Amino acid sequence: MSDDYSEGIWDHLEELTSRLRHIVYALLIVMLIVMSLPSDLSKIWQLNFTDYSFMVTDLMQLLQSALLPEGVTLIAFNWLDSFYIYFVISFAISFIICLPYIAYQIYKFIAPAIYENEKRVLFTFVTLFVLLFLLGVVYAYFVLVPATFTVLYKFVYQTNVMPFYSVKDFFELISFGLFGSGLFYTFPLVLYLLVQVDLLSVDDLKSMRRHIFVALSFFTAIITPDPTPVSMLLMTIPFYILYELTILILGQLMKNKPDKVLEEGIVAAEEFLARKQQIG
Predict the structure, then answer these.
(1) What sign does the dihedral 150-152-153-154 (CA atoms) show?
(2) pLDDT tens for residues 102-150?
(3) What is the distance between the alpha carbons of residues 58 and 63, in angstroms, rounded to a whole number?
(4) Taking CA 177 as the corner, what is the angle to CA 185 and CA 92, rounded to the nearest 5 degrees?
(5) List of residues 6+ apart from 232 with CB closer than 8 A
(6) What values do phi and psi take at 204, rounded to 5?
């Protein structure tokens, strides 16, 4: 290994470390601000610290009011449960606020190594990823998570068990539902990448419909806490519709994509004819 090559690797590692350090610093600063913000921002410039309530605690109450079934009581089994939830929500808010800055730092690190057309593709990919992720989060917040809590509550109620739940479990279930659903709905981009690198074809996706639906039903049955098929269907059906839309879109995109096998055959034939002419 040459010294220039080793120095190049160390330069890249130093730059990566520097950008990661900037990201961590930004997250810490924003997180401290978020954790300290009052629900009424006017108290800051008025220097009025009476009846000071934190914005994050108000958000926790909002989530409980929006998603917790009526009649359910949350309790803390540990002294640190409420602070743990406060910390996680503050981090999630801070991460969302810092996301443009994080994306900028990552882009600045990889930009020198990619071409202009690849930058446009990267921008499109990131935009679609964010949109699909937000689609999954919104769907989970308004449909999937409330339905799951309602069904679970009815199941517990029928067993004559007092509806007291851990506040930590409640917010962890919300976090898992929102984040998991968001990632789940970015799967079409994975299919797009697999088709682009010729590991899969549109015809393969069409022939795999039945297997995908069975595997999807099995997977959602495992990850959803609802013992009834309600949550499983609420997650499976929209995703399958998205899968069909992905097939239609990829079918249109692949019509204009040149056949690599044909191109390689033409190149091989041209090389063969050129060698034959040289020999002749």
Answers:
(1) positive
(2) 888 888 888 777 777 777 777 888 888 888 888 888 888 888 888 888 8
(3) 9
(4) 95
(5) 217, 220, 221, 224, 226
(6) -60, -45
Alpha-carbon distance 188 to 205, whole Å? 11
Please tell me what DSSP assigns to residue 111.
Answer: G
Q: Give the model's pLDDT for residue 29.
A: 96
Query: Where is pLDDT greater, at 123 or 159?
Result: 123
Closest CA to 63 of 177, 156, 164, 227: 177
What percentage of the chain exceeds 90 in pLDDT?
7
pLDDT band at 4, cuts 50/70/90?
low
The answer to whether 94 and 29 have CB atoms below 8 angstroms apart is no
Measured at the CA of 196, the angle between CA 191 and CA 264, to 5 degrees, comes to 150
**Residue 269 confidence (pLDDT):** 55
Cβ 123 vs Cβ 106: under 8 Å: no
User: Residue 5 region, left (φ>0) first, then alpha (ψ -120 to 50), else beta?
Assistant: alpha
Calpha distance 58→72 (Å, rounded): 19
Query: Would the pTM count as exceeding 0.90?
Result: no
Cα–Cα distance between 63 and 81 in angstroms, integer?
A: 16
pLDDT of residue 1: 46
Single-letter amino acid, residue 65: S
